[in-house]
Specification:
homodimer; alpha+beta; Jelly Rolls; 7 helices; Phytyl_CoA_dOase-like (chains A, B); dioxygenase (chains A, B); dioxygenase activity (chains A, B); Phytanoyl-CoA dioxygenase family protein (chains A, B); oxidoreductase (chains A, B)
């Protein structure tokens, strides 16, 4: 599917775009089940909540689960990513934030590109995030909140001031100060896109965003694919970050002919 | 002001009732300023957030601030309280939850009466809470969330299982389990009343409620007066709880002739 001119304009204006019910209930159920399988795989790609038990996020499910290996080439994700970046793209990162029922903790206000510049020397913010709702999202289960247009302010907070996790660069480590946020909110307001499972939010790697804890009995699982321009590769003076947080396959991705579920069923025949 | 039959019916059905903009902007500003003054008074009536610095709640402001001494007799609060309990009432407790910008922490899902039965041997749930919004309340600054009708389930969680604070009985200490909550939410859903500063929510001491942290740059200060039937007094086998958490003046309250601000200005002339 291609975005309309109005949709691409709105993305560039606001820094995000909601596409309601882009994936079917069947597809979303398949992705949810594949995530649950993957969340049970031990390893450093699995980040737990502060309680030390429940899964907070899992990285690189496409390396272990065929559903996600297909999903990253799904034309409903790749075609818009090509349109918005106007360049060839590859998968820089795939993570699934679990935000479990009653207590999935908040994610601090941050800009993704701040983390990626610090950790991976990523030269420019030429990324687009594509987030798929694996559950219905409402005001109670910790929806992502965006400050519309804040991607046009450049990097507000460029330094790292904490180390919450050894496994990944957590938003807490690069969170904006209350003063920075108050100024941006006064100017931009706040918006939290909601919708049924299968909805998709495209968002800039520079937009300021965060989310509250989950107060409800419904989980709020969100699969986020980050596509980066193939002309904008990371580099490391020393040891690179592990492959589960930074994709090494930088070949341009080519869209599947149809949705990931068709491709998967074809492969299983 | 008297509630209509429809309003009292809805209160008894849902366990809460929102009255938008019951107090004027002037009145709300006066109450907000009086709270800020009171929040600076050191003492055990002042509960701080986990950061040890910011104020989480202040008790019994009516004992120190004339605005709140008048407010508890304001006919806009007392007349509905009389109507809903159909008994003479006195002030059992007054607290102001500060929920400061960016980080006022969540309040666990709980029923107030569970706390009061445990701590004060309060014989029956013959209380009504009257909460005044001292700030605009939206989806981002941690609104109170109710499970409509849950007050009709009686006490779901009757024991105390933790001690978060030595100063007061914190909702964390009597929070419902995820299983209890999931059952109630499936049956009742969730609602979070929002509105401009000066709005009022009346709610039952048995309704299950909680709130998320404040993600926004706006505080969410909420003044809560709890009226109890004068025929339903607390008692203690040993030492009673301090007066700042349990009012000792159990004389029936008589409404002022006009709003608290008029009475206050009269007193100042």
């Amino acid at each position: 599917m291609r975005l309309t001119q109005e949709q691409t304009d709105r993305y560039h204006e606001d820094g995000f775009l909601l596409l309601e019910s882009l994936f079917s209930a069947d597809e979303t159920a398949v992705l949810g089940a594949a995530f649950e399988r993957d969340a049970a795989v031990p390893g450093p790609q699995r980040v737990v909540e502060e309680d030390g038990e429940r899964v907070r996020a899992v990285y690189a499910s496409h390396q272990r689960q065929p559903e996600y290996a297909g999903l990253i080439r799904d034309p409903r994700l790749l075609v818009p990513a090509h349109q918005l970046l106007a360049e060839d793209v590859y998968l820089y990162q795939l993570k699934i934030n679990a935000k479990p029922a009653f207590g999935g903790e908040k994610w601090a206000w941050h800009q993704d590109y701040a983390a990626w510049r610090i950790a991976d020397n990523l030269p420019a913010p030429r990324q687009v995030n594509v987030a798929i709702f694996l559950d219905d999202v409402d005001e109670f289960n910790g929806p992502v909140i965006f400050l519309p247009g804040s991607h046009r302010s450049g990097l507000v907070q460029s330094g790292r001031h904490a180390t919450r996790s050894e496994q990944h660069l957590d938003p807490d480590d690069i969170s904006l100060t209350p003063e920075q946020l108050a100024g941006l909110v006064a100017e931009r307001g706040m918006v939290s896109p909601k919708g049924p499972a299968g909805s998709v939010v495209l968002f800039s790697s520079e937009i300021v965003h965060g989310s509250a804890p989950n107060m409800s009995p419904s989980p709020r699982r969100l699969a986020i694919m980050t596509y980066n321009s193939t002309a904008n590769l990371p580099s490391w003076p020393g040891e690179p970050r592990p492959e589960y947080v930074v994709g090494r396959d930088t070949e341009p991705l080519v869209p599947l002919a149809a949705g990931f579920l068709d491709a998967l069923e074809g492969a299983l025949v």
